[in-house]
Amino acid sequence: MSNKYSLLFTIIIINISNLYAQTEIDRNVANIQNESSITMVKRVVLDTLTYTVYGMDCPGCNSALEKQINKLSSVDYSVADWLHQEVMIVVKRDSTIKEKELFEKIKKANFTLGEEIIR
Amino acid sequence: MTFEIKNIRIIFILIFFTSFSVQAGGISVDAGLTPGQDRWILRTQYQYMKMQNSNMTTQNHMVPLIIAYGVTSNFTLMARAMYINRIITMNDAVQKSGFNDAFILLKYKVYRENTANYVIGIAPYIASNIPIGNADISDRTWNPEFGLSMSYRPRFWAIDFTSSYTLKDALKKTDDQESDNLSLNVAFSSIIPLKNSNLAFSPVLELTYNKEFNSNVKESKKQEVMFFSPGLTFIKSSLILEALYQIPVFQQTNVSLMKSKSRILIGLRFMF
User: Fold this and answer.
1) What is the pLDDT of residue A40?
2) Residues 6 or more apart from B113 whose CB is under 8 A from it?
3) Max CA distance (Å), chain A
4) What is d(CA A83, CA B39) in angstroms, rounded to the nearest whole number?
5) Which conformational region is residue A94 in: left (phi greater than 0), alpha (psi within -120 to 50 degrees), or beta?
6) For A37-47, what is each residue's pLDDT tens digit?
7) Contact B35 A64 (CB under 8 A)
8) Which end of chain B has less neighbouring CB within 10 Å, N or C?
9) pTM, whole model, 2 decimals?
């Protein structure tokens, strides 16, 4: 009888150990993914442009501007900020944005392109 | 009774212009700004209005559904359908429900100036009902409308102004001619950002003035009404929640005509 309990106890311990080990693996995977994300962000920052945009007057304007800019084939995505009157544009790898095209797209959103912001 | 119900219809058409402005600003007052090209705006509301005279009360529960689209950055097309539940109480209560006439509006931006400190926009529009509504609700006449909207928005403030003139029964289908309508509306609002650039709320104050205006119509059928309307909008990215309370502060009507009581408007706007 005591052997049975010993066996059961051993099985439980092994399972808890496995569970702990799996959690450790998950943590490691998550860490690796985080590191990849950091690397990705570093790469993206290199391909980012920021411009002043005039004419945005509420949070609804953010998506209106982003919708037009994201139509440019060289744009990966953009993030508009009506509060600071600017838009950050993430350019696709090995692509360039022609300022004239950007001007036209921003005009289609009924806004006006300002200067490039160098940070 | 028929005469009085017609007058109810007049007031109903006059007051509820539903703006489709993509930006914050006025709630029932449209802006002199047009949405960008390829921009969609979906809007719905619940509106409650009550009117009364010495022997009759009318209550309207209304749900307009509005869709607007930026065909180009200058030119916007808007269509509206509105479901109405109307309860008329005299000696007994009579209930009428159904869709009112469809409504279409074409708006064209003639001027817009964007600067770091302000935005100015001017946009005239033409609009008309399409008399296909439920026979209990619609009088099946064409009522074209001509308007001009202007906006001045110095950063965190907004002033929107819309004036319009509605020709009643343009094709002179009915013998009993109704007055045309002149409408002047102004909205003041301030936008207050919350936490980040995707959240804001905006207190709004609107003044709405309507005058029935036609020298061919008897004085006894003309009315004048002015509303003072505090409201509030809450904006989260592409979603706007709005509420407006319209208080009649001035009314000049014939004794037999209906007087407006306070009105409530609660709405939702989604833009993409």
Assistant:
1) 47
2) B119, B120, B121
3) 85
4) 21
5) left
6) 444 444 444 58
7) yes
8) N
9) 0.80
